[in-house]
Amino acid sequence: MDPQPAFHLWRPHPWHGLRVGPAPPKIVHAYIEICPFDLVKYEVDKDTGYLRVDRPQRTSSQPPTLYGFIPRTLCAEAVGSLMPGSLRGDGDPLDVCVVSERPITRAEVLLNAQVVGGLPMLDGGEADDKIIAVLENDPIWSNAADVSELPEALIDRLRHYFLTYKLAPEEATEISIGPAYGAGHAHAVVEAAMADYNSRFGKAE
Question: Distance between CA atoms of 168 and 145, rounded to whole angstroms?
Fold first, then answer.
């Protein structure tokens, strides 16, 4: 477990200044950028760490779960090597979708997420995995240990959202998503993203 100071004079950057999680790759931190009620795509600004408006959604698609990223991860060579057909990782933190029974209606929150699977998404030839997790200690979903234990309809909604969230009239997309993978491969993706981060930015002291 990488250490973290007990106090920060300034707000830590959510990508670089927070721990990966209490027990990665199984239990990770998720920094939430978007909740299921958002009609605007928000994304962390890599320079400042604040949320930036990326784009208003141009279709009726809404994220079916909480959506954010795992701190101190990066999708680069190691992540790309795990996805057939990819040229590389997309250069962003590893995305995570978190299932919660109770509605969480605000973004910029940090939570513990139990990794259960993922969707292998290729975007323009780059690996852009979407890790699927459940909220730790959730009264309904925390007993799920693998994506196969989640409703198929929920996985279908996630797949549909990511296949359509960049759609614009008369513009083609280069997104494809393979079959969902289970917890074992998801843990390997998290570990690869941690290794990519440490290779690029150095391991935290």
Answer: 36
Q: What is the pLDDT of residues 155-198, one digit of tens each?
A: 999 999 999 888 766 677 789 999 999 999 999 999 999 999 99
| 34-70 CB burial, b ≥16 within 10 A, e <16 | bbbebeebbebeeeebebeeeeebeeebebbbbbbbb
Alpha carbons 83 and 104: distance in angstroms, whole number: 31
pLDDT digits (tens, 9 = 90+) for 140-152: 999 999 999 999 9
Q: Indicate if the alpha-carbon torsion angle 78, 32, 34, 134 is positive or negative.
A: positive
Q: What is the DSSP string of the chain?
A: -----S--SSPPPTTTSS-S-SBTTTEEEEEEEE-TT-SEEEEE-TTT-SEEEEEE-SSS---SSEEEE-TT---SHHHHHTSTT-SEE-SSPPEEEEE-SS----SS-EEEEEEEEEE-EEETTEE--EEEEEETT-TTTTT--SGGGS-HHHHHHHHHHHHHTT-BTTB---EEE---B-HHHHHHHHHHHHHHHHHHH----
Confidence at residue 5, expressed as pLDDT on a 0 to 100 scale: 56
- pLDDT tens, residue by residue, 38-90: 888 899 999 999 999 988 877 777 899 999 999 999 999 999 999 999 999 99
* Topology of the domain comprising 27-201: Inorganic Pyrophosphatase (3.90.80)
What type of residue is 88?
R
